[in-house]
UniProtKB/TrEMBL annotation:
<feature type="region of interest" description="Disordered">
    <location>
        <begin position="1"/>
        <end position="23"/>
    </location>
</feature>
<keyword id="KW-1005">Bacterial flagellum biogenesis</keyword>
<keyword id="KW-0282">Flagellum</keyword>
<dbReference type="Pfam" id="PF03963">
    <property type="entry name" value="FlgD"/>
</dbReference>
<protein>
    <submittedName>
        <fullName>Flagellar hook assembly protein FlgD</fullName>
    </submittedName>
</protein>
<dbReference type="InterPro" id="IPR005648">
    <property type="entry name" value="FlgD"/>
</dbReference>
<keyword id="KW-0969">Cilium</keyword>
<comment type="similarity">
    <text>Belongs to the FlgD family.</text>
</comment>
<keyword id="KW-0966">Cell projection</keyword>
<feature type="compositionally biased region" description="Polar residues">
    <location>
        <begin position="1"/>
        <end position="21"/>
    </location>
</feature>
<dbReference type="GO" id="GO:0044781">
    <property type="term" value="P:bacterial-type flagellum organization"/>
</dbReference>
Amino acid sequence: MATVDATNRTVAQTDTSSNAAKKTDTLGKDQFLKILLTQLQNQDPTNPLDDREFVTQLATFSSLEQQTNMNDSITKLNQLMSTFVAHQDPFTTYVGWIGKEVSGKLDDKEISGTVKSVKNIDNEYFLYLEDGTKISPWDVTAVGEKTK
């Protein structure tokens, strides 16, 4: 039984160390710069780093930084697009009501009229009817074609 326990522990330790290795597989720009600076500080003064090697390392660092910045930009763009899509759906729906007859309740009174425009005021949408009435889409009970 002691052998089984020892084997299980060894396997568990191996799995843990392989997970740790997976987390550090990627070299970020900060780590790359630290390695480059350490290499420059500890180089042999009688045998300095070859110019081509140094330029290659700087180009690699520049490429890494550009890829990181591009990834950050794409992430931000994705977040903006998600926000835009989330806010676009109701606006698109309400704009589709322009020229249509709506009915609803405003201050406990039944109203109806033709939608003239849609406005977003402080992140809340309002419909403006041809007679100047302002109504929230949440107060609309029916939408239909304009009657003649």
